[in-house]
Design brief:
Blueprint lengths: L1 E6 L7 H18 L4 E3 L19 H15 L5 E10 L2 E10 L2 E7 L23 E4 L2 E7 L6 H9 L4 E6 L7 H16 L3 E5 L1 E4 L2 E4 L3 E3 L5 E4 L6 E8 L5 E3 L9 H19 L5 E4 L4 H14 L4 E5 L7 H14 L2 E4 L3 H10 L1 H4 L6 H22 L2 E4 L3 H6 L12 E2 L6 H14 L5 H5 L19 H13 L4 H6 L4 H13 L1 H5 L3 E2 L23
Parallel strand pairs: 1-2, 2-3, 7-8, 8-9, 16-17, 16-19, 17-18, 19-20, 20-21
Antiparallel strand pairs: 1-14, 3-4, 4-5, 6-7, 9-12, 10-11, 12-13, 14-15
Helix pairs in contact: 1-2, 5-6, 5-12, 6-7, 6-12, 8-10, 14-16
Amino acid sequence: MNLCMGQINTFVGDWRGNCERVITACRSAHSKCSNAVVVFPELTLTGYPPEDLLLRPSLEQDTEAALSQLCAELPSTLWVIVGYPRKKADGLYNSAGVIHGGKIVAEYDKQSLPNYQVFDEKRYFLAGSDACVVDVDGIKVGITICEDIWEAGPAARARAAGAQLLINLNASPFHRGKPNERLTMVSERARDNDLPVVYINQVGGQDELVFDGGSFAVNRDGELAVSAVDFEEALCWLEVEGGEDLTIRGGAQAEPRDDLAAVWQALVLGVRDYVNKNGFPGVVLGLSGGIDSAVTLAVAVDALGAARVNAVMMPFRYTASISVEDAQAQAAAMGVAYRSISIEPLYESFTSALAEEFEGLEPNITEENLQARCRGVLLMSISNKKNLLVLTTGNKSELAVGYSTLYGDMAGGFDALKDCPKMLVYALARYRNTLNACIPERVITRPPSAELAPDQKDEDSLPPYDVLDAIIEHYVERDLSARDIIALGFAEEDVRRVVRLIDLNEYKRRQAPVGVRITQRGFGRDRRYPITWAWRGP
């Protein structure tokens, strides 16, 4: 058997376009092998996750039209396995169909429905219960979908039904460490059932989620046999040989990426697909001379090319000369359009208009926030006029504790670094400079500052970032209580303060732009805390 893993980038809600992507890939596969098995990701026809599009009355009609087109236009000698939502008398199922000879010859309904982290499939789907095993030219092929491989039952049922090879269709989003987690689990399932397993995954960005592809196959002993490139579309081939006991051979193994390289590619793909799939000609961002905007600029250029990226320096009386110099140097090094627009006149106009309202009140954080809001007005105005998406530059550490300004530096459409803690941002800057030096060294080495007050440093208001990031990880990503974190050796004052800030600033995060998710607990679909609540972590 020749099998092709069709690792494609689907577009949520684009039934017709996704159908055409399948047809194009199958025609390419057919030119290489006329009777190959070609496998595509979970919910290929709708894209993943379709969310409440699954509740629309037209869902069944759109899906049937796409399946009819596939049956009519796919090369009839291929065996094509594709995912889609299937409406049955009792409800909706997350299904996969096998198309051969111009018709659907078998269908499978996903048995294990994930309902944690970013997943809420039980909102939409009913769980299947039956195995699906298809005889493909004498080889009995079992089909499962995504979460099915993480539980023992579905694979065991396929094995009991006679499967000699297991194929698993996926829309598995990326987070740090996820590729190794997948390989470990799939290898375990292969050994448990004495079956080779083919794992095909979707690639592409969808709002905050990034799907990294990285499709692969393991043999019965759990050893990796074939792996596709990650973060790119690919048709990855493998051969299945043997009689009763099958072996996967003949495929290539892509070079795995280390953690920083994988995170970088996730950010780049997330920005690229958000911008392109939403039809923006380009992006604009505020380039401050600081680390966050520097890394955001580099991500944007890698994602879109320099010609589609616009950088704006917006200096004020507190902006250091080296910030201006470094921003200009990076813009020149990366070849992006660059302008400098002082916010001094805007700030003076606002303070003049507010003079009577503020009479008798001492200056405080209001004046700092006003500077950020002047910058937000400029960027959003450029966005409106030129139809450019504003990339905000906040990181996870700042968003966690509210070290950001609503309608100021939070104003925009997408935040590449939203799920990146501050210390990771520094690591990403150094990683990106290993590819080619584009971020000035001073940006990486100087103490971080919002530059909203004279001689201001972030650590005037926050614990050191290595401490802050560790507390945030324990509280947000691991759900430890303040008491538990203190017991790990952190200063009680720091922990209590950080936890309180995280709890109080949910209202800000609800109004923050969407951004790329790269951890298991991002601020978005993963973590749904109330804004108004009485309980506070002990």
